[in-house]
Amino acid sequence: MPKLDLPDVRLSKYLARILRHAPESAGLTLDREGWAEFNSVVAAAVARSLAKSADDVSRVVQGNDKQRFALLPGGKHIRAVQGHSTPLVELTLAAVRPPDLLFHGTAGRNLPSIMANGLHSGRRQHVHLSTDSGTAWQVGRRHGVAAVLEIAAATMMRDGHQFYRAQNGVWLVGAVSPEYIRRT
């Protein structure tokens, strides 16, 4: 996928904010699965001068390298596929068997706390994990000097933890206790 230019990055960040965290700031109503009316999202983006038309929003949704957004067939509804902090949304995800190992990227300054207390979802509904360390490095770099953690996902599942896989391939879990974490 082509890399988004700066105006598209701004629009993408706005879409993430209103579809994951603050729909009320754009006058949106999300259903329990996080779906909003596409035309309402377009109108909000146009009102903030972040888009000129539905084509701009569609281009950003389809060009997002992390596939953060989804459109229903027919294009009448849009949602973020994971990462919600709003209590309005409770995605219905089926528990699935994870790979033996998953990875989490963070800033190195967070390591002492993580190694002592584990990973917690914070304001989000889940801890986000990836299947490869490269993606985890990219995530960690967004927050400073990167650190990558290896998560013993198969052991966690055996111990009763449930894992989910978002539509874009991100693995989700409620929390990760320190005993399942190893620094790579």
Protein traits:
32% helix; globular; three-stranded antiparallel β-sheet; Arc Repressor Mutant, subunit A; 11 strands; 6 helices; 184 residues; alpha+beta; ADP-ribosylation fold
Task: Explain what this protein looks like in three dimensions.
The chain has about 180 residues and is α+β, with helices and mostly antiparallel strands. The chain has two domains: about 5-80, Arc Repressor Mutant, subunit A (Orthogonal Bundle), CATH 1.10.10.970; about 100-184, ADP-ribosylation fold. It contains six helices and eleven strands. The chain has helices at about 5-20, 40-45, 55-65, 110-115, 135-140, 155-160, and strands at about 35, 70, 75-80, 100-105, 120, 125-130, 145-150, 165, 170-175, 175, 180-184. The strands form four sheets. A three-stranded antiparallel beta sheet has the order 1-3-2. A three-stranded antiparallel beta sheet has the order 4-7-11. The protein is globular and about 50 Å long.
